[in-house]
Amino acid sequence: MNNQSVLVTGAHGYLGSVLIGELDRRGYRTTGIDNGLMSQVQVPLRNGRYVAADLRDVADWESLLAGVDAVIHLAAIVGDPASGLDNDLAWETNYLATVRLTEACRRQGVRDFVFASTCSNYGLSVGAAADIHTALHPQSVYAESKIYSEHHLLSNAGDGFNPRILRLSTLYGRSPRMRFDLAVNVMTAHAVNRGEITVHGGTQWRPFLHVRDAADAFIRALEARPATTLRVWNCGSSAQNHRIDDIARIIAEAVPEAKVVHEESAIDSRDYFVDFSSIREDLGFLPARVLADEVRELAAAVRDSRFGGCDRPEFSNYETLRAVVAARSGPPRGAGGAAQLTRQGV
Ligand SMILES: NC(=O)c1ccc[n+]([C@@H]2O[C@H](COP(=O)([O-])OP(=O)(O)OC[C@H]3O[C@@H](n4cnc5c(N)ncnc54)[C@H](O)[C@@H]3O)[C@@H](O)[C@H]2O)c1
Known about the structure:
binds nicotinamide-adenine-dinucleotide
């Protein structure tokens, strides 16, 4: 039983809603922060509370962090398409809010900090499997903003501040806050609802991880007292590196009535095969779930209409943010924030 106090940002989100529930179940005291931009899902907590706050603009960090032992920072504009809708918003949320949170933690003496980064940072990795020393080739503002955040956190390590970074695989599976804009989830939903599994390209490699296994990895990173100074781990497992074509085949086995359709438009250029040996060696992390089983489970839930229509905008970060951007008055902010920040050398 652990009664540490953990602050989880992005607590209403796809991963956050699973993780905060699991921390609560394991006896942690939790505070969930979210601004409700993408989700308002609040899983019930026995020993925790939620605070509605926008991390870009916290008036009173002192009260927010009072009594907090550790922070798990998940809040972000998540995904390449959503981040590309408003580059300034993506940079403010994913990078500047991380800087402010890091500085507030250091001021307040919060020692332990676990950050959600992404294997998207590798972008294109040809040849050997990407380990944490492999050159990064971000293909989006999303990945760029995560890389800048990693740098900031690592450059602040020491003097009692102990940041740890998990570069996550692409997640899949059921969560209280469902996302049907993630490859496995959307392809499974379309297989059931449309009888079609659309594959854009197909030969690209990508690592996958169940959202509940990801929550377990975060708790391991939080609890780790590693003997080495390593602070960055790829989060996933080598066995779950798949080509998109493999994913389509696994889904087609679970949903035999669906046919696979290849499209050569809108191909996601990301292509990376990732090495996960260090998270297994340092944190003892191996996922408990197997993709094929979880696809069957998800397909059954979609068939039972448990989600009431997988195409609803609330299940997609891009569609949710697109509606927010469209409702804004004034000229669109558009792209350009990334370039400006990069020029400023941030
Ligand atoms: N889902 C994946 O496949 C995946 C893969 C790699 C990395 N990650 C990382 O994991 C983390 C969680 O992702 P997710 O899939 O749960 O995404 P999500 O969009 O479901 O959750 C993000 C949450 O952050 C909140 N948020 C956004 N801006 C905020 C702000 N300014 N202040 C407070 N809250 C804010 C949103 O309302 C949302 O609830 C993210 O950091 C993401 O980059 C996710």
